[in-house]
Amino acid sequence: EKTGKVLGEFCRCYREQYGVALFNSVRYEIEGNGGPQAQLLHRKVLLEDHVIYSGNLFQYIEENKKWRNRFCVVPHNYGLILYENKLAYERELPPRVLVNSAGYKILTSVDQYLELVNSSLPGVTPKSGHSPILKCPTDFPLILWHPYARHYYFCVMTGKEQEKWRAVFQDCVRHCNNGISEDSKVEAPAFTDAVRMYRQSKEQYGTWDMLCGNETQVLSNLVMEELLPELRTSIGPRLKGKAQERQRTWIQISDAVYRMVYEQTKAHYDAVTAKCEQERPQMESTIRTDMDQIITSKEHLASKIRAFVLPKAEICVRNHVQPYISSILEALMTPTSQGFAEVREVFFKEVTDMNMNIVNEGGLEKLVEYMEKLSHLAFHPVKMQSCYEKMDQLKLEGLQQRFDVSSTSVFKQRAQIHMRQQMDNAVYTFETLLHQELGKLQGKDDLCKSIQRILERVLKKYDYDSSTVRKKFFREALLQITIPFLLKKLAPTCKGELAKFQELIFEDFASFILVENTYEEVVLQSVMKDIMQAVKEAAVQRKHNLYRDSMVMHNSDPNLHLLGEGIPIDWGEEYSGQPEPEPAAEKRRRAKQVVSVIQDDEGTLPYEVGAEALLQPSSPKPRVPEEPDPGAPPSSPDGVREIREALAKESLGDGIEAEEQRLTNGTDATRESEASVQHDTPPSPKPRADVPPEAKVPHATPVSPAPRAETPSLSARMACHQPSDKETGEEVAPPGGERSPPQSTGTTESSEGVQTEF
Q1: Which portions of the chain are predicted below pLDDT 50?
Q2: Which pTM was predicted?
Q3: How far is Cα 127 from Cα 542, in angstroms, rounded to an integer?
Q4: Where is the segment annotated Disordered (predicted)?
């Protein structure tokens, strides 16, 4: 009933906004816009059929209160896919869990999580000394918390792993939150304006944290925002049992309701979009035929509303907004510009290191290897983390309360998405220019000089585009902060009088001109001049490396944008220096895993120490791990095997039976049997003494997957199990409950084939 009521009102708003958005789109198409032209190229074909990241971590299974080892795959669409183990992934078995992470928060502390859980059900707090709702068997938890949907609990063995997985999960959340496609010039603005108009009709102004995910997820959040408090009031007092049980039950109830709301919302929204799409040809025909009359009618209406509203709006701007614009802008500029500067620095460092390694290791063969990695730099969560975390400094402090900004997360995530896009544009432009030059080069020296020259050209283009993108971001952020504040201030004196302007709109044009939208445009004009002036002054003073609007960078590469229209570059296929042709299946496997196997210089993840073999710069053959020196002093245990063995000796003694110990909810750590441990990965090999000194340059030792049997292509594997937009994160369990994992026979890979529990 609540869903039907909310969606009924929303769909009315959407139909109104659809006509306005269609008119604006056609008008923009006809009149065009003379904005500055981007200097960097934009990649047309993204990371389809690639894996962003993959690895092992432990998940808490609520049904049986056990911690289990899971193999997690993050594909190009940033859904989280959890398999029983790596073997199940390679054998194309169904995944255990699919998670769409839109709207989730990543927590790295159980205390943070318990605080949120305690506040979700007022009056229900476990007494001190009682066991909390969740215990973690390690000191490195990773919890996905959502205000309405189910929660997901993970943990890893080391702080370094926790940092990596946190970066990966945050990248997933960032990408999934940005679920409304900007390529849609009609549906997207119609939807976001309809959501804003609906919330303003309920006296809710300002930014909204739950405007995240695809359209159906956003609308489900809209319904739950109103429904959940009513459910809490009616159901909360009826919950029985201890505080922990009541909290757990409430989370399950909230998730079940959210799923029901999601299904109903999807049906409502699909129906209204289908109806609007059906009416679109007739509406578009009317717009194109009567464009001049519609514009004249709208300008007449705007002049009448302006005469009524503008004097009041200007007083409000002068007294309540103008004095704070420069403070807001400075608060936005500092962390954002630091983030973009870090993007530039990371790009410069990666290309420079690549160039140094080519000097030391030689030639085109190494260039191909490094360019395959560089082409995915923008999508590497760990390497981009130093750029993203600059935005964590964004604080609006007192301004946040004054302008009713609930959270700065909206601005942080938007800036971070811009950073990733500019990094990818810079990388794509670099590889396009380098690809063009390769045919003219002779020898290693020519190659290195050419790389340096192209790098300098790309950095100049990056500086210009970075300035343009940041200025636009600052203007949009200032409008997002100030316009809702002004609308709320003016509502008591202006909103009630707007109905009288309806008679000024011709009935034939009523679908394309709305009084409410025209009123907001007038309010926007009242503050736009001050915002533009503030950003312009910041650029004139060269603050944070912003360029003046009058500075137009003429395209020094007139054919560059034509190059960007060509077929995507496949470095491995075009310039592979392998003596023998690589089998198609192996080549396909490597191409699809290229992002997930990029590791930091310090080594591989503890769970996957044996999954990759280090290559010597001078030899294409995998290096055989050396036996550890028996006389060497014992080192700290880095691999899972060493940790398990050390803990097993302490907690279970030397006479441990060869049987898996199962304990619930992390009250004790479970250790694998000796039979299981023997399949674990050997420790990482020590650096070889025979490697020449010149090969020990930073980033000089590439990481390559170990040879293995032919693996099915990712597209085939993902065909039925990719997390669709519909997914809000559900358990996928085959009939009969938990499967027993396939036994690993003679494998040297970590513990992918072994079911691990705590």
Answers
A1: 577-581, 584-644, 646-758
A2: 0.76
A3: 57
A4: 572-591, 613-758
